[in-house]
Amino acid sequence: MTKTMWNAVGLAAVFVAGFAARGVMPGDSTAYAQAAPRVFELRTYTPAEGKLDLLHARFRNHTLRIFQRHGMTNVWYGKPMDAPLSQTTLIYMLAHQSREAAKKSWDAFRADPEWTRVAKESGVGPVKVESVFLEPTDYSPMK
What we know:
With 143 residues, the chain is an alpha+beta fold. 42% of the residues lie in helices and 21% in strands.
């Protein structure tokens, strides 16, 4: 299996564990079916060696907010627990109204002057990006 497939399998396992735990934990469920269908985008980032902490800082301090401004819904951000991926990889998931909406959001994001400045000033440099679009199954608790 490719790295992206392993990432998707790992993320799916995390979601399944979360949904299983909701039945034994007090309180309301944390995931509710949405009225309108969405598509999810699973992204894996691999920066140059030694740049992962700078990438996390850029996301923490700027990127999530800029994504939101351009209509992207921040769903989940995580990092692998085991080396070597724990030292080199950021994995996250966004939700979009459609693939067309995702394209428009990404185009606007890339053209955003704040993003251009932040990307340059962050010191992260080039990042290898893998992206997979996903749609919920008919039985998925999260739509």
